[in-house]
Amino acid sequence: MDHKAFFLKFWDKEATATREVIARVPQDRSDYRADPKARTAREIAWLMVHEETVLADGLEKSRLKWIEAPPPASMPEILDAYDRQHEAATTKLKALDAAKWESRVPFIWGGQEVMNETAYDMAWGFLLDQIHHRGQLSTYLRPMGAKVPQQQLALTPGEKVLSIAHPGMFEGLLPHLRWEVIKAGGIDLGVIDVMPEPVPEGWDVALLQKAERAARQHYKAMLRDVDAAIMMPGATPAHAAYAAMQDWLKEGRGRTVHFHWIENGSAYPLPGQPLPLRPVIDARYQRALLETDYRALAETQEQFATALRGQDVRVTSSSGTDLRFRIGDRPVNRQDGNASAARTNGARILIDREVELPAGVIRVAPLEETIEGTIAFPPSQWDGRSVEGLIVRFAKGRVADVRATTGREAVEAEMTRAGEAGTSFREFALGFNPLLAVPDREPWIPYYGYGAGVVRLSLGDNSELGGTGRRRLRALELLHGPHGCRWRDRVGEEWQIDGAVAILSDRPRGRWCMANDRSMDTGASGRHGSPYV
Length: 533
What we know:
By secondary structure, the chain is an alpha/beta fold. It has helices spanning 3-23, 41-61, 75-95, 98-102, 119-144, 147-153, 174-183, 205-222, 240-250, 278-291, 294-308, 341-344, 408-417, and strands spanning 64-66, 104-109, 112-118, 160-165, 187-193, 228-231, 255-258, 268-269, 312-316, 322-325, 333-334, 354-356, 361-364, 372-376, 380-382, 385-387, 391-395, 398-403, 425-431, 444-445, 455-459, 494-496, 500-503, 519-521, 527-529.
């Protein structure tokens, strides 16, 4: 690969991330700046656009000259300019011959020649500078969205709010979150840092676990009067403060907002498809956080949850999945972003008090005795080994049979090691957020499958969902299991509520899901189109 081809490969690859970040800057906060002397978000976005134009024009003319250009008045104008100018710049760069790429090009700034490098070196310098500013702009997005958790918590004056965080993760966002709590009249209790991970090599893990257990009891006493907590990325139930807050939730006190984000492993690749660059994932999550229509999301989820009651549910796919169950009076957890006290005071299960942002999924543990049928898996790994042609049959909620073209022993070994939970059906989940849907191009699964049309079926303990399982055993999640066992199915064209709920797939590649603008047929009520279905 020559210099030109090598550079253009990365030029094209980075463009996706650059556009995503520019597109996520909210117009109403585009004048935000991290420091009084810093550029605004709108100015940084425009700088990234302008750099490409200067580079392409300069290399074409064999002389780069930087001339400041005022940014357009709005973010939509900047994004439109990027789309037009990036395409034009790419055309010019591709048209340069090898001699041009090897020739030296002067760079004029303020009337002075400040650099004289080969076109190839100059191009890389501009691209890397653009990536630098993209990262800078990414850090702006988080503070610009700091108001969202406070809005979702619907704080009332005097409510006490604590943040639990992992050192080094999202530290720049924490002051803004705390300020939003204060502005809302809440009492900011500060931040508890968990033990940074990974811990240094040689530390006694057993001793650390013992210390966490001891600290948990003391934290519980400390957190008794906390009304709400914000769980930041990197903090998990394995940490004492987090677990102590959960203890109060289980006793019917308090509520939490969770930001698992990227740090807690929420993005999953599809077989044969690499995950996108981190800025693309980060920008997708921030867009979902800032732009979700939470009211419409809640209405659609409630409609679907109501439709499930008293019906037989059937999940099928063209690859062989055919699973039936009923939910009876089991609680349906709706992750619609509502973390208000009014909402969580009616909680029936633990996760009703644990509200995740971004939002988007409904979750339910079906009645175990009603779960019958099969799940067909794509090629996957179990017990560290490749498995193909896997079909698992369930009877009364338990694994009754395992068949596979190759690797059946590996599946059985992993299930056995997980104990009773490893052979028990855990939950049905369906995503509704169109801003987290699986992309058509370069597909991947955003945020645990909370996107519109993503179906999640999993094995494991279902006690947190109101099921009968009570053993604290490792769950084998078909979406994000510890050994990469993943399953997704495209949701088909309609939900039929006429004595049965059918989630059907008529697509030939029925494993991954993205279902925008589908429809719900509610029988007597008629047909209701929805962007979340």
